[in-house]
Design goal:
alpha/beta, 3 domains, 15 helices, elongated, BTB domain-containing protein
Length: about 300
């Protein structure tokens, strides 16, 4: 790419000051560009056609240009009050999309793309970002993995700022399952989150802990209906199994990650020695209770966090 030419202002032919030349971004200064974006202390000269994917820019660029509008290097200049770091992500997506999509998508990278794509209505980019965020903080909360633990607090703020409420339950749950004293990501939540959301985290954690304690105390009961009719011989084996699987581990960096634990129990398919001592009818009742608890907890989580 050719070196960027001297920056020029409307009605003036002289070279701009040296410090203004330094503000020009060589990576995104195209000799045949036809619009200049001024963002923070930086300038880029790009092509209008690249901005037509944005509904906001598409409408703006369709308007007749004013004769006394600001210009730089013979092109119209638009000042944007955004983060240059965020726009660098979007410019890379606009010009080197194949390489862009192959890069590891770190959270800050996604957050910048979501802020700009939401503000300027770049639907394709916004959808791409949201698809990645939905993998980190899924709607099906039993699928939450350790990938969703970092940046969960920042994700809550991002979701509220960029109209992405569907990731909120997963992000709140990701914070609630961590032991913050273990130097986990949740330890920064009191710095990042608004007070109201911090209270939601505390309340949700308490509800999840209460739910776990109720199971450990009486593993085979149901809070809202008659307990299953397990046979007397199988009850001690099943109670022991539930308590062993769900008992808190003081060495674990996680607290009550109950949905993950219940899903792991469901996937054992009766191969555990304790379950092999249980009769066929009680196994059916056991798995019925297991899946019922998973459904109930999953359905309750948004309410537990007051969402």
């Amino acid at each position: 790419m050719a070196s960027p030419p001297s920056k020029r202002r409307r009605r003036f032919r002289e070279r701009v000051h040296e410090e203004e030349d330094e503000a020009i971004s060589p990576s995104f200064w195209f000799p045949d560009g036809d619009i200049v974006l001024a963002i923070e202390e930086h300038c880029c000269k790009i092509h209008k056609e690249k901005l037509m994917c944005s509904l906001i820019f598409s409408d703006m660029l369709d308007l007749p240009q004013l004769t006394d509008a600001d210009s730089v290097d013979g092109c119209p200049s638009v000042t944007l009050y955004d983060s240059w770091k965020d726009w660098m992500v979007v410019l890379e997506w606009l010009y080197t999309r194949e390489t862009f999509l192959q890069k590891a998508a770190i959270f800050d990278f996604l957050a910048g793309a979501l802020r700009i794509s939401t503000k300027y209505e770049i639907t394709e980019l916004r959808d791409w970002v949201l698809s990645d965020l939905h993998l980190r903080w899924p709607k099906d909360l039993e699928e939450l993995s350790t990938r969703g633990l970092p940046h969960a607090a920042e994700a809550i703020n991002l979701a509220r700022a960029c109209d992405a409420p569907e990731i909120l339950p997963g992000a709140f749950y990701a914070l609630a399952v961590q032991k913050w004293h273990c130097n986990a990501e949740g330890g920064r939540s009191h710095v990042v989150l608004e007070p109201a959301d911090m209270r939601r985290i505390i309340s949700g954690r308490e509800h999840l802990q209460d739910y776990l304690v109720q199971i450990v105390i009486d593993p085979l009961s149901r809070a809202d209906e008659q307990p299953p009719s397990f046979c007397v011989a199988c009850v001690p084996h099943l109670e022991r199994y539930w308590r062993e699987k769900l008992a808190p581990d003081p060495m674990s960096p996680y607290g009550s990650w109950l949905l993950r634990d219940l899903l792991a129990m469901a996937r054992e398919s009766g191969h555990t020695p304790l379950l092999q001592t249980v009769c066929a009818d009680c196994k059916i009742l056991h798995y019925s209770l297991l899946y019922d608890r998973m459904r109930t907890l999953k359905r309750s989580i948004p309410r537990l966090f007051q969402l």
